[in-house]
């Protein structure tokens, strides 16, 4: 097929067979597909601490008011980790990803270091993370192949797949906000944003876009 993306892979999930690739190991800017790794690491930390996704946390000031896509969190707001996961995976909230990273990892530096260790552990050779949300940084990059590797790992987690396969989600009112309705940015899952792409077999995963990265998509069916 004629693929306009700068890098792409198509993998058969049951066998791992590589069906198509285009510059699969070219370093590119991953934008919000970064949040796949963020969600994976958050869920791993929760499991290590024997905490559920329903654990309550307080949004740190560092996460409030970030540029780009947002679920409009406020510093001091009390939310569940699950709500932050939905916020980052459905509506691609940079604030939600940053809040989840700080609350799970203690601080951004520790969390991002863990993201990079996880990438190395999974065999990613062309990836380096600088933040948990995918906002542009010249030192924040990945490859189509590496994104497949960490997405494959994340897909083993039932909570992850439940979240990224959801079309819409309501975050209940908090101590500082009315309820929020979140809608997926993935038009293979829902036609709420863009008509004509919804696919009955689709069950994930994540979109992303910045001026530097262009439009990115990790999808599964």
Essential attributes:
two-stranded antiparallel ribbon; alpha+beta; 8 strands; 6 helices
Structural account:
With 221 residues, this protein is of the alpha+beta class. The protein is built from six helices and eight strands; from the N terminus they run E-E-H-E-E-H-H-H-H-H-E-E-E-E. The protein has helices spanning 34-48, 81-89, 94-105, 108-121, 144-154, 158-164; strands at 8-11, 18-22, 56-58, 78-80, 168-171, 180-183, 204-210, 214-220. The strands form four sheets. The protein has a two-stranded antiparallel sheet. Helix 1 runs parallel beside helix 3 (94-105), helix 1 (34-48) runs parallel beside helix 5 and helix 3 packs across helix 4 (108-121). The longest helix has 15 residues, at 34-48. It is globular, with a radius of gyration of 16 Å. The relative contact order is 0.19. The mean pLDDT is 97.
Question: Distance between the terminal alpha carbons, to the nearest Å?
Answer: 18 Å
- Largest sheet, order of strands side by side? 1-2
Main β-sheet: number of strands, strand sense, barrel status? 2 strands, antiparallel
Query: What would you report as the Rg, rounded to the nearest angstrom?
Result: 16 Å
Number of strands: 8
- Put simply, the count of helices is 6
Give the H and E element order.
EEHEEHHHHHEEEE
Question: Which shape, going by the Cα principal axes?
Answer: globular
Quaternary structure of the protein: single chain
């Amino acid at each position: 097929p004629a693929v306009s993306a700068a890098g792409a892979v198509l993998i058969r999930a049951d066998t791992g067979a590589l069906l198509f690739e285009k510059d699969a190991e070219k370093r590119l800017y991953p934008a919000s597909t970064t949040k796949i790794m963020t969600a994976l690491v958050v869920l791993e930390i929760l499991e290590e601490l024997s905490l559920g996704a329903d654990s309550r946390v307080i949004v740190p000031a560092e996460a409030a008011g970030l540029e780009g896509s947002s679920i409009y969190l406020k510093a001091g707001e009390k939310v569940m980790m699950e709500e932050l996961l939905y916020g980052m995976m459905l509506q691609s909230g940079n604030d939600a990803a940053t809040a989840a990273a700080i609350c799970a990892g203690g601080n951004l530096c520790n969390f991002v270091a863990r993201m990079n260790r996880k990438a190395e552990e999974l065999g990613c050779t062309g990836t380096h993370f600088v933040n948990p949300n995918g906002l542009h940084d010249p030192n924040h990059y990945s490859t189509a192949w590496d994104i497949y590797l960490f997405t494959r790992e994340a897909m083993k987690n039932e909570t992850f797949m439940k979240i990224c396969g959801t079309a819409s989600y309501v975050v209940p009112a908090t101590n500082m906000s009315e309820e929020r309705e979140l809608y997926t940015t993935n038009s293979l899952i829902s036609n709420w944003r863009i008509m004509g792409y919804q696919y009955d077999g689709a069950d994930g995963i994540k979109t992303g876009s910045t001026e530097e990265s262009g439009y990115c998509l990790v999808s599964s069916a």
